[in-house]
């Protein structure tokens, strides 16, 4: 028996270690080929990104005779996409020439030395002046250099079903002023239209960053004075421990699930809940209010799978209010994605040429419309053709004025996980709001090497 | 077949005896070299690298350079409630699904099938083995469909007018344990069927003639005689169960609230979701330790001869 006994754990360890050391392969780099990695939708019927990139590739190959573009799609849920990408970026053998980076992780990857500063390229590129300043800041490292070209931004708000609202006796031009107004509407719907889900807010670890950003931060940034950053103190360069605002935001989540105003907890903690909200619950009229992002209509555009072009007749939009209606009265969070060049890319110059092709005014506009994105180029934002192409775009663009950006420093991904754990605890009822808050503070200290202040 | 066919053993020449063996040894080992090199490269190499990074604070992202941190990752694990929770759940999962479930059920099925008619035997064997050959992820989806709120199990309970339960939510660790029993019992059954067939008919008959009932025969004859198979089976089952990942990942992702997060899932979360490769690897080494502890216990069980 002895040989087997020793072998099995060894095999387990080897499997673990091959997984940990990332997959090898990849054939160095060909000087005439740009390898472009991007996140492919996990929903097979959504091909927005694929179609757009195929078009750009054609334009690029036509304009640069002899050059080729190789698209390297990564099909994975968000959190697994980041992991896969980071593994690829570690080695020159696997690093593509161009990657699609979420601004939520970009600083973390910059600190790891995975990305190349783009300043020399940007200095010679006149279009860069067209980008709005907040967007330019999104891809800036702590060293002041820029590591990515943003391809749009997003904002968040409340989507509501006007038909359900009519049945519940609620107005079609609903605009809640406080959190209580939101909960009251949900309670009314629960009572009057019992067969629908009154309100969806993402929660817990299975949905990852969506829980943190679409729900928790949309609440948290509306507490206190509604303007200052409740997560990170920029002047002290320290993270802020869980305080009253944190507890209030958690209590909101707890109320939604305790009073059964949200989906069944097991559905809420299902990793596929995001796909269900967009593909099933909203289009089929099973959900009254959704706190969600501006990009939802990309799933409903013609040719995208769950076609629902008439959504703008059924759904209304309302800004997420601050806790007690304090100024500025509404909250939104913004993020977005950028195109970056890996430090170990073989063809950085050609990769930047590809970025330029993607970001001609016409192509940028095409992309904003295709993915329901919000323009980060002034020239596009002012174009009536862009505004008319997307219902709701004015609403979400207006939110940019009062939006917040996450403190996307290297510790942020771990801070985000700690928030999700706190949320999951109160959602399942395993922990009280106070316990979850103090557990968050402990996790925060651990994740940031004790760079924490009490407020 | 060829001109240089080996000489028959009996025709040994003096050169073939001990003193002359030395110089020929390297030549004999030559064919082994590729295998040894491959083993060193692909087995020992990654393991050594693994052990090394378990003592560093290597991260997947968010860090310019990793540094050596000694035993920090290990002390951190033992102070981490989530880790202790994962150790506890791993033990529950292993004991319930492997030791009790797969092992006992496998033995019972094997014993019953000894006596069953051929069609019954073929049918039962077929069903159980099907569960076993299904890929882990497919089995995970099937059992997810079985246990989920609108799933088959609750439909059956409803039909029997029994209260239905949200199994994956209220009792996730038991649900995944049951899934593992369902999937892994066939292996035990096959091992035990083979062992039971090895028992000479005469011994059982003699015991029967001496008036030993079914239970006594089981306890005093059958079990002692298949003791070695029990040890082997327990060890293989346990090691397989300790490393179950896909099944739990598909059914619950370790949730809700970490209530089915066994060590492999905890390790994955730390290494790939929190990017803490160093810490995750240290946990992997601890999992290895748990596996070896179980193995040691079984080896002792095997050593005492009947």
Automatic annotation (TrEMBL), chain A:
Signal peptide residue numbers: 1-22
PROSITE patterns membership: PROKAR_LIPOPROTEIN (PS51257)
InterPro entries: Bact_solute-bd_prot1, SBP
Superkingdom in the source lineage: Bacteria
Entry keyword set: Signal
Record-annotated membrane-spanning stretches: none
Identification of the protein by name: Sugar ABC transporter substrate-binding protein
Native organism: Streptomyces hawaiiensis
UniProtKB/TrEMBL annotation, chain B:
Subcellular localization(s) per the UniProt record: Cell membrane
Residue ranges occupied by any ABC transmembrane type-1 domain in the UniProt entry: 88-298
Pfam family, one: BPD_transp_1
CDD domains named among the record's database cross-references: TM_PBP2 (cd06261)
One of the protein's GO biological processes: transmembrane transport
Membrane-traversing stretches: 29-55, 86-111, 123-147, 167-192, 234-256, 276-299
Membrane topology of the entry: Multi-pass membrane protein
Matches recorded under InterPro entries: MetI-like, MetI-like_sf
GO CC list: plasma membrane
Alphabetically ordered keywords of this record: Cell membrane, Membrane, Transmembrane, Transmembrane helix, Transport
Annotated stretches, region: Disordered: 1-23
Family, similarity comment: Belongs to the binding-protein-dependent transport system permease family.
Name the UniProt record assigns to this protein: Amino acid ABC transporter permease
Species annotation: Streptomyces hawaiiensis
């Amino acid at each position: 028996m002895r040989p087997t006994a020793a072998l099995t754990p060894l095999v387990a360890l080897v499997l673990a270690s091959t997984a940990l050391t990332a997959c090898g392969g990849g054939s160095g780099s060909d000087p005439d080929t740009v390898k472009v990695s991007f996140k492919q939708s996990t929903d097979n019927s959504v091909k927005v990104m694929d179609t757009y990139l195929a078009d750009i590739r054609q334009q690029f190959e036509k304009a640069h005779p002899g050059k080729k573009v190789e698209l390297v799609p990564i099909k994975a849920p968000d959190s697994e996409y980041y992991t896969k990408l980071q593994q690829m970026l570690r080695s020159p053998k696997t690093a593509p020439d161009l990657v699609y980076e979420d601004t939520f992780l970009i600083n973390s990857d910059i600190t790891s030395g995975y990305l190349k500063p783009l300043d020399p390229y940007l200095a010679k590129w006149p279009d860069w002046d067209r980008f709005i300043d907040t967007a330019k800041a999104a891809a800036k490292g702590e060293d002041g250099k820029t590591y990515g070209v943003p391809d749009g931004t997003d904002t968040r708000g409340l989507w509501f079903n006007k038909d359900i609202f009519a049945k519940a006796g609620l107005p079609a031009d609903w605009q809640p002023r406080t959190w209580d107004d939101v909960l009251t509407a949900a309670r009314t719907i629960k009572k009057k239209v019992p067969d629908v889900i009154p309100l969806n807010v993402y929660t817990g670890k299975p949905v990852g960053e969506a829980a943190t950003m679409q729900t928790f931060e949309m609440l948290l940034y509306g507490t206190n004075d509604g303007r200052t950053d409740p997560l990170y103190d920029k002047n002290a360069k320290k993270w802020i421990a869980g305080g009253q605002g944190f507890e209030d935001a958690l209590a909101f989540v707890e109320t939604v699930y305790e009073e059964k105003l949200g989906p069944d907890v097991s559905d809420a903690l299902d990793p596929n809940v995001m796909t269900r909200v967009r593909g099933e619950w909203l289009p089929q009229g099973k959900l009254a209010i959704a706190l969600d992002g501006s990009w939802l209509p990309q799933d409903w555009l013609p040719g995208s799978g769950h076609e629902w072009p008439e959504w703008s007749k059924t759904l209304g939009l309302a800004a997420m209010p601050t806790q007690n209606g304090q100024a500025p009265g509404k909250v939104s969070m913004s993020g977005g994605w950028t195109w970056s060049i890996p430090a170990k890319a073989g063809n950085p110059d050609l990769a930047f040429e590809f970025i330029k092709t993607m970001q001609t005014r016409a192509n940028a506009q095409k992309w904003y419309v295709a993915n329901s994105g919000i323009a980060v180029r002034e020239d596009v934002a002012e174009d009536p053709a862009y505004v008319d192409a997307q219902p709701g775009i004015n609403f979400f663009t207006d939110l940019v004025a009062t939006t917040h950006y996450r403190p996307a420093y290297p510790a942020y991904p771990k801070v985000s996980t700690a928030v999700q754990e706190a949320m999951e605890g109160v959602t399942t009822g395993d922990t009280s709001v106070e316990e979850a808050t103090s557990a968050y503070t402990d996790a925060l200290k651990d994740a940031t090497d004790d760079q924490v202040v009490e407020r | 077949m060829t001109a240089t066919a080996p000489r028959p053993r009996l025709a040994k020449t003096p050169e073939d005896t001990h003193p002359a063996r030395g110089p020929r040894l390297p030549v004999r080992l030559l064919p082994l070299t590729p295998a040894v090199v491959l083993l060193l490269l692909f087995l020992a190499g990654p393991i050594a690298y693994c052990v090394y990074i378990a003592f560093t604070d290597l991260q997947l992202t968010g860090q310019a350079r990793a540094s050596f941190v000694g035993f920090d990752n290990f002390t951190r694990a033992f102070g981490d409630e989530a880790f202790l929770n994962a150790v506890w759940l791993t033990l529950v999962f292993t004991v319930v699904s492997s030791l009790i479930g797969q092992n006992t059920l496998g033995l019972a099925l094997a014993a019953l099938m000894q006596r069953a008619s051929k069609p019954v035997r073929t049918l039962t064997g077929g069903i159980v083995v099907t569960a076993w050959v299904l890929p882990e992820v497919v089995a995970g989806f099937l059992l997810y469909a079985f246990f989920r709120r609108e799933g088959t199990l609750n439909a059956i309970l409803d039909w029997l007018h029994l209260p239905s339960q949200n199994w994956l939510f209220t009792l996730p660790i038991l649900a995944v344990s049951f899934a593992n029993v369902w999937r892994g019992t066939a292996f035990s059954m096959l091992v035990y069927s083979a062992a039971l067939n090895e028992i000479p008919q005469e011994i059982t008959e003699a015991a029967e003639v001496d008036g030993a009932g079914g239970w006594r025969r089981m306890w005093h004859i059958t079990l002692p005689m298949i003791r070695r198979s029990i040890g082997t089976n327990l060890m293989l089952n346990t090691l397989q169960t300790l490393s179950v990942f896909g099944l739990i990942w598909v059914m619950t992702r370790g949730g809700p609230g970490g209530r089915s997060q066994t060590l492999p899932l905890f390790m994955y979360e730390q290494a790939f979701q929190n990017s803490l490769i160093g810490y995750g690897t240290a946990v992997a080494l601890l999992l290895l330790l748990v596996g070896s502890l179980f193995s040691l216990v079984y080896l002792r069980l095997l050593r005492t001869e009947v």
